[in-house]
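Posting here for the record, re: MU-OXO-diiron.
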Amino acid sequence: MFPVEIKQNVYWVGAVDWNIRDFHGYSTYKGTTYNAYLILDDKITLVDTVKNPFKDELINHIRQLIDPGKIDYLIVNHVEMDHAGSVREVVDLIKPEKVFCSPMGHKNLLAYNLPEDYPYEVVKTGQSISLGKKTVQFLETRMLHWPDSMFSYIPEDKLLISSDAFGEHWATSERFDDQVDMDELMIHATKYYANILLLYSPLVQKLLGEVQKMGLAIDMIAPDHGVVWRGNPKAIIEAYDRWSKQVTADKAVIIYDTMWHSTEKMALAIVDGLIQENISTKIFNLRYNDRSEIMTEALDAKAIICGTSTLNNNMLPRMADILTYMKGLKPVNRIGAAFGSYGWSGEAVEQVTKYLEEMKFTLPFPDVKILYGPTAEDLQNCFTLGQQIGQMIKEQ
Ligand code: FEO
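Prediction output follows.
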């Protein structure tokens, strides 16, 4: 690929990872990109690096523009390995005059065993540096995505280089939002928020407020993953506002695993009850659906209903997986319910309920638990549960 000029004298020089399918447990079925940006000014500045196996691609892109040895500054907006994984090789090659990072960035680069004698320059929110014609202002964005994360803002270009925020995992030959299908773009952006940033929603709200208060004029957002928001940066800012407020729709997500289809029959009866109430419903058999796809649908679901058989006195392992994952991502203000079949001891449903309680879901209806196979009456009870949840969704 080639470097792409995103603003005058600001170039995308990152790498496209077409083949990654698992990003620490998140299914990246259409790959991702590791974006890095090169600013050509009196002080030539590289913003971020890339995941280590892609360092040659980064260097090759830089070489198409300048001799890498001419780079004066390196800005490390985030130390996670998909962005800082080639800092060592890049610093060795370019020997920068300064390496800018946040206070936590400095601490964490050292924790990743990078040399202490690099020319680190620690910067905090509100500090800025002049590159010549352009300025870079720094804004610490702790926990978005790690404690070290920060934004780099170029006021002369109204350009926000936003690290992980506003990104998506999607490998494309196009570099801008207005070159790709907007509907597909928003699907990837939604999945990214649901699986990476949802738990930090209160901080996202705070950050959006801070950006507004600082009066940053933004006409382009350049994240470290996916496309650059050039045509419609407002769309992703508004989506982040909505997602971080955890605005939900009249929608239910049913998640289940089943041994001999009894729990599955219960799930389908609950779905029928919800549909009867005209609730948009998504159903996921954990055997066939990835946790990150489920979380994407759960992002705006008002009700999350979980069913599992009991195996060896426990819930089925896939249910433990999704509940652990979901609990970590902290969805709030949801209606929950648990159901399942069992053979003799039947602990699983109570275990699921405990998880839902720990997530502070509203649990207005008793668990539905049946012995072995569901009778017609059991299925009617499940149908009724679906209807009751559906009615409650509509009332809220
Ligand atoms: Fe894309 Fe938090 O790294």
